[in-house]
Design a protein that fits this description.
Elements (H helix, E strand, L loop, with lengths): L6 H16 L3 H7 L4 E10 L5 E12 L5 E8 L4 H17 L5 E8 L7 H15 L8 E5 L5 H15 L23 H17 L7 E5 L3 H12 L4 E7 L2 E4 L6 H11 L9 E3 L1 H5 L5 E4 L18 E3 L8 H9 L3 E3 L1 H4 L2 H15 L5 H26 L3 H20 L4
Parallel strand pairs: 3-4, 3-5, 6-7, 6-10, 10-11, 11-12
Antiparallel strand pairs: 1-2, 2-4, 7-8, 8-9
Helix pairs in contact: 1-3, 1-14, 3-14, 4-5, 6-7, 6-12, 6-13, 12-13, 13-14
């Protein structure tokens, strides 16, 4: 029987697994496995040729027992309500893992942004923002960038919400440009958090990061910055990287600064000088110390997990490893640092941005990075003993840690009325 790859069903299965370990009652499991609020919006957008097209968007608020909801907005042709539900659930656990005073949310619009002009994208963003404005706000739900959205998207969202309110509300979104209340360090936060947690894990595993070999699947924003940070700050040897158009491999290490220039010029890492071509599948099976999946979900499955030779897997992407693959990796002694921990740097620095916006007082890049390192290293050091004590993989341990925080908040608040 083929493995179930429906993202929300995977998310629910992960919750149920941790609920068993925590011995939660059926009522609490019922609460934890259902989104609190879901908004579907169908809205018209005028295109450049004068025609009107109706787009569909979503905003799911999964749980807000611990505080306002937090989560990105993605523009992608494959966005679905079930995907947004799953991502909102994962955000709930991610914020709890980092001990941030947030719940989880996610949003998305079914659109191929590559087919729209900049003006059309702006009109789509502003209309979507106005449609979901009834449930977002700095005390309610704070969106952020995700797949195919960026700081410009957030600027349009913040401006639209502010126009509706009649005054400037910088804290309504995070991931904004610095000129309108963004935070230092936000752009590389996801990759930097992954690097910090990999460094902490390497210490406990006896891996010398200065001599470690690294393979990075996905060379978009998080993957390319991650490769640069492993190369520059840890002194690791990045031997392979890939993107949607191909992959490159050099056992002696790739020149990451030159590869970044090559990608900028050609739009892909493929055909980089001094390297040989490698497929995504081959990259996942390289004999390296650290494997960084930074692309799409469901990349390591029950079909290829037994071929993974890396000592450590650091999930920069959301959901790159399936539940059955988790079991295989754990059995084979591979340390997997799950997405809700490894890529939590983005939401953590988003939280820092929100705090700075709310108090209108901003921090230096050094302060931001030091605070991020402190929080994410503490989270790793809190979760590792759970994994060791219960003899469970790190993902399940992270879920146990996060779910307990949400359950504690829910119980202490009680049911109303």
């Amino acid at each position: 029987m083929p493995e179930n790859l429906d993202q929300f069903e995977i998310a629910v299965a992960q919750i149920r697994k941790s609920a068993q370990i925590l011995k939660l009652d059926s009522g609490m499991v019922d609460i934890l496995t259902k989104p609190k609020r879901e908004l579907t919006v169908n809205f018209p957008v005028r295109l450049d040729d004068g025609t009107v097209k109706v787009f569909t968007g979503y905003r799911v608020q999964y749980n807000y027992s611990r505080g306002p909801c937090k989560g990105g907005v993605r523009f992608h042709p494959n966005v679905s309500l079930n995907e947004v539900r799953a991502l909102a659930a994962w955000m709930t656990w991610k914020t709890a893992v980092m001990n941030l005073p947030y719940g989880g949310a996610k949003g998305g619009v079914i659109v191929d942004p590559k087919k729209l002009s900049r003006d059309e994208l702006e009109r789509l963003t502003r209309r979507y923002t106005s449609e979901i404005s009834i449930i977002i706000g700095p005390e309610k739900d704070i969106p952020a960038p995700d797949v195919y959205t960026d700081s410009q998207t957030m600027a349009w969202m913040m401006d639209t919400f502010s126009m509706i309110k009649g005054y400037s509300v910088p804290g309504v979104v995070t991931g904004k440009p610095l000129s309108i209340g963004g935070s230092e360090g936000r752009g590389e936060a996801t990759a930097r958090g992954a690097m910090y947690v990999a460094r902490a894990a390497a210490k406990t595993r006896g891996i010398d990061t200065g001599k470690a070999t690294v393979a990075v699947q996905g060379f978009g924003n998080a993957g390319s910055i991650g490769a640069r940070l492993f190369h520059e700050e840890l002194g690791s040897k990045v031997v392979a990287v890939s993107d949607s158009k191909g992959g490159v491999y050099n056992p002696n290490g790739l020149n990451i600064p030159e590869l970044l220039i090559h990608k900028e010029k050609t739009g892909s890492v493929a055909n980089f000088q001094g390297s040989k071509a490698i497929s995504n599948e081959e990259l996942l099976q390289l004999d390296v110390d650290i494997l960084v999946p930074a692309a799409l979900e469901n990349q390591i499955t029950e079909k290829n997990a037994s071929a993974v030779k890396a000592k450590m897997v650091v999930e920069e992407a959301n959901g790159p490893t399936t539940p059955k693959a988790d079991e295989i990796l754990h059995k084979n002694g591979v340390l997997l640092l799950p997405d809700i921990l490894a890529n939590a740097g983005g939401v953590t620095v988003s939280y820092f941005e929100w705090v700075q916006d709310m108090q209108s007082f901003f921090w230096s890049l050094e302060e931001v990075n030091n605070k991020l390192e402190s929080l994410i290293t503490k989270a790793y050091n809190d979760i590792l003993p759970i994994s060791q004590k219960e003899n469970i993989d790190m993902r399940t341990a992270a879920y146990v840690y996060a779910v307990k925080k949400v359950v504690d908040a829910h119980k202490i608040r009680g049911l109303w009325p």
